[in-house]
Amino acid sequence: MILCLGESKVRTRIKKNDMVIVISGVNRGKTGKVLRIMPGRDRAIVEGVNVVKKAVRKTQDNPQGGIVSVEAPLYISKLMLYCPQDKKGVRVRVERDGNKRIRKCRICGHAFDS
Predict the structure, then answer these.
(1) Beta carbons of 50 and 39 less than 8 angstroms apart
(2) From CA 13, how far away is CA 17, in angstroms rounded?
(3) Of the N and C termini of the chain, which has fewer Cβ atoms inside 10 Å?
(4) Contact 83/111 with Cβ under 8 angstroms?
(5) Is CATH 2.70.70.10 the right assignment for the domain spanning 19-84?
């Protein structure tokens, strides 16, 4: 029996700095910009979404210490690209323009990679 703990098999069409909308869970309907993608864990950190409280030690940078709010990772399957023209989450098709891959909205054809 072979156990694979490394790379994940989920294909994502979401990249850093994309606007996304959360489609399920407690944060459903919230939109934000993707700050970081974690491909090995199939997760993404979205600005202003899934904010949790975290205890922080006293350091020279933060002499008070205390409790701060930080964004926790969300599973990628809970996110969809947000189309500014349709004002909702959309599925994406990928087209080739020479050597470039361009992600386009399936509904209106809005190009996400300009």
Answers:
(1) no
(2) 12
(3) N
(4) no
(5) no
The answer on pLDDT for 111 being more than 60 is yes
pLDDT digits (tens, 9 = 90+) for 1-46: 555 555 556 667 899 999 999 999 999 999 999 999 998 889 999 9
Query: What span, in angstroms and rounded, lies between the C-alpha atoms of 43 and 77?
Result: 8
- Please report, as a single letter, which amino acid is at residue 51: V
Residue-by-residue DSSP string for 37-49: EETTTTEEEETTS
Question: If we measure between CA atoms, which residue out of 52, 47, 55 comes closest to residue 22?
Answer: 47
Question: CA separation (Å) from 51 to 54, 71, 98, 110?
Answer: 10, 4, 41, 30
* Tokens 């891959």 belong to residue: 101
